[in-house]
Design brief:
single chain, alpha/beta, 7-stranded parallel beta sheet, 4-stranded antiparallel beta sheet, 13 helices, about 40% helix
Length: about 375
Amino acid sequence: MASFDGTAGRGGPLRGRGPAARPVGPGAVQDEPVEVALTFDDNRLASLVFGQYDQNVAHVERRLEVTATALGNHLVLKGSADATERARRVFEKLYARVRTGGGTLTLGDVDGAIQEATVQGQLFPAAVVAAEPDRPHFEQIATRKRGAVRARNAAQDAYIKALRANELVFAEGPAGTGKTWLAVGHAVSLLEQGHAERLILSRPAVEAGERLGFLPGDMRDKVDPYLRPIYDALYDFMEARHVDRGLQTGVIEIAPLAFMRGRTLTNAIVLLDEAQNTTSMQMKMFLTRLGENSRMIVTGDPSQVDLPPGQKSGLVEAVKVLDGVEGIGRITFRDVDVVRHDLVRRIVTAYEGAAHGEADADRNPNPRRRPLA
């Protein structure tokens, strides 16, 4: 089982001066503050890069510990040589993205550009990065509605690569890391490209401390609320009319895990979400449904098992039993890979710290409340 533990050109006319144009020599002082000035040719695109009220600029300042001053289509970066070089690459990537896509940027997009710039600096010399600013670049998923969606960190990059390379992929990790969302995006892209004929979505109907027997309708009606995150992702990547038509024609199928027994799933991409709540027998049954020309994606968070006390999670057991099996990939996300909201990452870290007797992990010693919008 291949596993990962989450431990295009310059993008348009852009003129700059600073350490990017002159490599630092062996005898240079690395800690001496430097200044880099960038000028973007398009004022409108520059405003998209800087964000509303320069929020993207402020975000890069906090993340990379630089001082950034934006004025019109000009940007001045000040800080250490390494930090300013990374910041320069970040803004170049963001400018290239809005220049080709034309859309607004989220703080998550900014974080993704920071991660890419960091990976570049670790793998390639500064001269190589300056000549080829998009080497290496994170993998991306493209659908007709959404367009290209690029991974925002190294773990997501490894996840997309694993989805393309393996017939079965396990993705474990906390909420907000993009496990299910990227899996649905990959499934939709395969469906649209004709590499699969059906998309089958499944999830165990295990209540998180609640009972669902009182809910009206048949079993599908009862399970549908549990599949809402998958539906949300589907509507993110596909037009609503295509989702509805797919559900009506059977191209998109909602299959409660209990109803998967006895089936052989061919020419399909099958997604099992919340797999930490499967039993050992259910997981074995599900995995053996894999048919010819099909792929499976299994996602879950081993820290949120809702099974009765003493019952073993099928996900936890499967990744151990199948470790080293050819054709199976495994991706493990961590709290630092949370992309939903930075506060979510801190919440996940705090809970994990408390579970390990480190209740003060990742806690800001000088908290400052953000003003309400």
